[in-house]
Amino acid sequence: MNLSLGLTLGPLLGGIVYARAGWYGVFGLGLGVLLIDIFLRLLMLEKSVVQELAEDKSNDIETDVEEPIQILTTKGHVRIQKLPEVVALLRIPRLLAALWLTFTQAVVISAFDTVLPLHLNQLFGWTSLQAGLR
């Protein structure tokens, strides 16, 4: 629901802010939301992390199931290195397809949202406020 609400109200609020405060107002509003988001993410503690910290810390045995990678060093020694979790996730084809579709949708929507007010201005002479309201 939040995504639909944001896509619906974004052009309206962007047009209003642009008409009242100009480019700096629009970018200032976006920067403000971004800074609040970063601040709240830094304050957030995940449940799993809190539970791990609350458990006994003396257990040093790792239970990861990742398969190690063997790297041959220049001296002939074999060093075992694990893949990061993000790289291991990129092996899943369904996740790659979802990432590609999400990227494609974001490119199409951002291209459409960028060009539409310019097209409406050229076609009907609408300002950014009028394009956002209609």
Range of helix content: 55-70%
The helix/strand series, from N terminus to C terminus, equals HHHEEHHH
Detail the poorly predicted runs.
Answer: none
What's the count of strands?
A: 2
Kindly report the average pLDDT value. Answer: 79
Dominant shape: elongated
Which sequence of strands runs across the widest sheet?
Answer: 1-2
Q: Give the N-terminus to C-terminus distance in angstroms.
A: 21 Å
Describe the structure.
By secondary structure, this protein is mainly alpha-helical. The chain folds into two domains: 1-49; 83-134, no CATH class. The protein contains six helices and two strands. It has helices at 2-21, 23-43, 47-54, 85-89, 93-124, 128-133, and strands at 68-72, 78-82. Strand 1 (68-72) and strand 2 form a beta hairpin. Helix 1 crosses helix 2. The longest helix is centred in the C-terminal third of the chain and has 32 residues, at 93-124. It is elongated and about 70 Å long. The protein starts with a helix and ends with a helix. The mean pLDDT is 79.
Give the helices and strands, then pairings.
Blueprint: H1 2-21, H2 23-43, H3 47-54, E1 68-72, E2 78-82, H4 85-89, H5 93-124, H6 128-133
Antiparallel strand pairs: 1-2
Helix pairs in contact: 1-2
